[in-house]
Amino acid sequence: MLYLIGGFFLFVVLLLVVIIFIFKKSPPSEVEPIKKAQMSLSQLIKTLKIEKSDLSKIEKTLEIMLKSYPFPEDEKEAEEHFKFVYFFAKNPLPSAKLIVKMQKELFEKNPKHAKAIEDFQVRGVDARKK
Hints:
This protein is an all-alpha fold. It has helices spanning 2-23, 31-37, 41-50, 55-68, 79-90, 96-109, 114-129.
């Protein structure tokens, strides 16, 4: 009889532990955007140069670039941005749709640099073919 009561208490304790693990709140997801905002444009370019197997990382670099790094007015200051466009188009992972999406969004945000953006994108796509 005593072992039944002990087994019942053991069952209740294990059940409580399982419930605690299931309903335990995860830490807020605000940590990830802070990390993204701290990535520099040169780090994003480095990711594009290195990453050849994970398309989600490439998409994240595009998202970060579009949200956090607007093109400066001066073309000399925008060289890093043009490098990003080139290496994004050169990377073998992004599909044509994703490259067109990048071009379209950059054109909308930076109509002054549209010709240069297109030039760097074409160079990247050409380098991709080689």
